Amino acid sequence: xxxxxxxxxxxxxxxxxxxxxxxxxxxxxxxxxxxxxxxxxxxxxxxxxxxxxxxxxxxxxxxxxxxxxxxxxxxxxxxxxxxxxxxxxxxxxxxxxxxxxxxxxxxxxxxxxxxxxxxxxxxxxxxxxxxxxxxxxxxxxxxxxxxxxxxxxxxxxxxxxxxxxxxxxxxxxxxxxxxxxxxxxxxxxxxxxxxxxxxxxxxxxxxxxxxxxxxxxxxxxxxxxxxxxxxxxxxxxxxxxxxxxxxxxxxxxxxxxxxxxxxxxxxxxxxxxxxxxxxxxxxxxxxxxxxxxxxxxxxxxxxxxxxxxxxxxxxxxxxxxxxxxxxxxxxxxxxxxxxxxxxxxxxxxxxxxxxxxxxxxxxxxxxxxxxxxxxxxxxxxxxxxxxxxxxxxxxxxxxxxxxxxxxxxxxxxxxxxxxxxxxxxxxxxxxxxxxxxx
Length: 438
Known about the structure:
By secondary structure, this protein is of the alpha+beta class. The protein has 16 helices and 13 strands. The longest helix has 18 residues, at 140-157. The radius of gyration is 23 Å and the shape is globular.
């Protein structure tokens, strides 16, 4: 029996990793509405008897009540710790016997539930998944065990300069908005959470009015509609109100948080652009040149390659549901971090005033368009991409048109975006460590 189970699990893992997928241009998305009113994006792929299902509930950890911070994160860790008649051990045993995998995770903006299962075990796997969606047990022993893990993580973050910098930067930028505090909560809030708080967090988060669905694999449209209607029957129609938009604040100043460590960690940022902005793709290409293009980016060249001030420095556009920011990070020795920051500021200003070259733009385009098809390397990654596209309001044709949109951006557009949207005077730093000269 153990040998059979091990073989089944190995097969499931192999399928998860190796499931062939068409190139991105060949992914045909079928968007339809089920009889019960669920919208689903579907790609039928029958070459391997395997299905990937993605559910996203919009709102995520940002739905926490202010005095219950960490409740949704803790609740998410408990969903698979027993459901219906099965306690945590029995639930895990049932899942593994089906060679299925379920994962539950939460971010600031969404609760993600992923399921991977073989066609032959589809009915049993979905029945088990349904139990976790409609009847999670939240047993007290499981709450105590998972809470201890969360508390351990919070204590670890209190000793991690990177985590301290991130949390301090978020608090400074987002203030009292949920984005301004860590989704794990604090020692005080997490230790005070009760089972009723966990149940309330579940009811606030898991509801049909904020649900996005994608399915990729060996299942037809005709089969899929009834399967989803059965899986999700009985979910509450509405959850807690979604939080208001944040108002990110950047003042162009540097805040230092003393912490005993040989290297300082700096988070920095300025206002960004939303994905649906007409200039977004130009800004995205600009960021590849600035700090998002690996070793060829300007920040890496100037800060690491030419001066040896860091192992890595990065910038990235962050498109949250309630805020759009342009962020970056760097880590450097205490006696050199000040110089690294000055180089970053100078490069930010130089790019704003002088723009990029035609050669840099072409390199950035090749970097983005060449890497894009590699993301579609299996049913699971495709399903994950599709559900993300829905949440961001993209059309089903985005996969086919994305590289064309990148290639259509002109040098004039990118350099106008650099002039209009890079804000050296607003570039704000939060530094954790013992930086010299700051």
